[in-house]
Amino acid sequence: MIFLQTEDEPAAGFGVLGAALGGKKSWTATAAAGHLLLQDAVVAAEAMRIPFVAYIGQRGGPSTGTVIYSQQELSIARDGGNGEGLRIVLGPSNLQELYDLTILAFDLAWRYHLPVFILGDGYLSKMTGEVDLSAKARVVKADPIVQNGKRVMNLRNCYSLEEEIARVLHRELKDYGSIAKEVEKSEVYKCTDAKIVVFAWGSVASATKEAVKKIRKDGHAVGLFRPITLKPFGATRAKQSVRNAKKILIVESAFGKFGRLVTEALFGISDIEVERLYKPAEGITPEEIEDKIRKML
Amino acid sequence: MSQPRLPKCVNKMSKPSNFCPGCGHSLTLKNLGFVIDDLRISSSTIFATDIGCSLLAWDYFDIDTVQSHHGRAASIAVGLKRALPKTTVISYMGDGGGYSIGLNHLVGAARRNEAITVILVNNTLYAMTGGQMAPTTYKGESTSSTPEGSFAKEDPFLGPEFLAPICHKEAFLARTSVDNPIQIKKYIKKAIQNQKNGNFSLVEVLSYCPTNWKTDAKRTINFFDYLKGFYKTGVIKGEQ
After folding, report:
1. CA-based angle B199:B190:B174, to the nearest 5?
2. B45 to chain A, minimum CA–CA distance in Å?
3. CATH number at residue B171
4. Domain-embedded: residue B14
5. pLDDT for B141
6. Which of A152, A153, A159 to mutate to test the interface with B (most CBs of B within 10 A)?
7. I need a surface site. Which of A117, A258, B74, B88 has the fewest CB within 10 A?
């Protein structure tokens, strides 16, 4: 393994791209304003279909902000570029998933030649706990893109004509659409009979699950929908999960970044009440979520 | 009619190239091509371009080429070289990309003595976007963003001289000019050799931009000679 501490995120990002072009599995990590800088390389990865993996330890913002709880980097990870956001975003909710989804991230990046984000937070990045390391990666080979022994590659991301880039984009969007169906992943927890479905992701979803379990024990029909891929977002499964629900609750450490995804996914369902527990840049305990749900019963 | 002699590694399908008439990029690239031919390294060379006029070289060669973003041609070259240490990696950029938005990456690569070769074409302004002032703009030079002459009171930025004190002792830094093909080839050859020996190298090529200088042939040569009075050519670090 080669470790290189670069001068900044664009250098790290483009260094990762160079290594991936050369046929080596490579990755980088950053947060907050560094995440903004990293997007420079991410759109290049999108444009030239180069595998790319980044771990983001979300910080509370705006600006340098705080370093523990936050889910405010969701929109940048999903769409933070001047393109169509053709990338995959994974949201681990605990340490085990952080391990498993990182393996998956490399698998997806090299299988589909797309940028993949693992979107954690300061809490996940700093905590210690037991993790089962026995999960085996599906071995997707990192073939070199340049020096590939087959043909000379002239890769570009710049076009002279609108029609030229439009043709490329339509092809890429179609491809992404079929990839999305294969990679969409979510946890649907006790939603079949649920009258209240709670939507949450990442470490907030871990707290939410605790609350849902507790209320279930009292015999109330409550469920949890947790997207594991924040992009692509499994809208069909999200809709199915609220089939019997009268109310939904959206919980996040941001002010509606996730909420907007949920309401967009559920667009067309009108007879459902939407409650929100938005705490931008703050942690959310199972007790707070439990209180909120109990008030909705 | 006989055709001008072109290097073997040139992608003939991409000709005529997209550079403006009188542009120094074509001359620089042609001479780089001759060096690649001489060294017989076209199949093991990777060419990384920046943004700006340098990006028009994305299909200039029948050589693996990857385009990066503005200022990032050195960074992607570092990743390529680290992944494929046996290849020759050439990072190709302009003065705006290299000495302004991407200077941090040249400093990083030079300090770490990354084994890459940077070829930086200096035409003293941002040519692709219409000829705005760059760090290399000469005092009093008229550009599209400084129509009455540069507002800058500072001397123009001397890249190789700036990097010399922070480079590894084995690094090779030089400046040549686009009207001196023998010297261009000599320095690029030395630079590539230096990369083969595991060290950083940079060759700045002082170049013409008649389109944005808004000069005819004669005034182009006159201004170029004037620039050479400040931008001294020669080896700045390494063996002569």
Report:
1. 85
2. 8
3. 3.40.50.970
4. no
5. 86
6. A152
7. B88
Is A10 part of the contact surface with chain B (CB cutoff 8 Å)?
yes
For chain B, 240 residues long, the average pLDDT of each consecutive 10-residue run is 83 91 96 98 98 96 98 98 98 98 98 98 96 91 84 85 97 98 98 98 98 96 96 95
In Å, how far is B63's CA from the nearest CA of chain A?
Answer: 6
The DSSP line for A190-215 is S-TT-SEEEE--HHHHHHHHHHHHHH
Task: Look at B67 and A157 and tell me if their CB atoms are within 8 Å.
Answer: yes
**pLDDT the model gives residue B139:** 85
Q: Which of B162, B138, B164, B170 is nearest to B152 (CA)?
A: B138
Complex confidence, ipTM: 0.95
Measured in angstroms, the CA of B71 and the nearest CA of chain A are apart by 9
The CATH number, out of the four listed (3.20.20.140, 1.20.1600.10, 3.20.20.10, 3.40.50.970), of the domain defined by the range A9-183: 3.40.50.970
Number of structural domains chain B divides into: 1
Note whether A154 contacts B59, CB cutoff 8 Å: yes
Whether the CB of A152 is below 8 Å from some CB of chain B: the reply is yes
Concatenated DSSP letters of A130-198 = ---TTPPPP------SSS-SS---EE----S-HHHHHHHHHHHHHHHHHHHHHH--EEEES-TT-SEEE
Over residues A169-199, the pLDDT tens digits come to 999 999 999 999 999 999 999 999 999 999 9
pLDDT for res B118: 98
Candidates A6, A20, A158; nearest CB to B67? A158
| Boundaries of every domain in chain A | 9-183, 186-296
Domain-embedded: residue B32: yes
Are B65 and A153 in contact (CB < 8 Å)?
A: yes
Q: What is the CATH number of domain A186-296?
A: 3.40.50.920
Nearest to A152 among B64, B75, B104 (CB): B64
Q: Which amino acid is residue A50, in one-letter code?
A: I
Asked if the structure places residue B10 within a domain, the reply is: no
Range of the domain at B111: 23-237
In a domain, residue B92? The reply is yes
- Whether A44 sits inside 8 A of B107 (CB atoms) is no
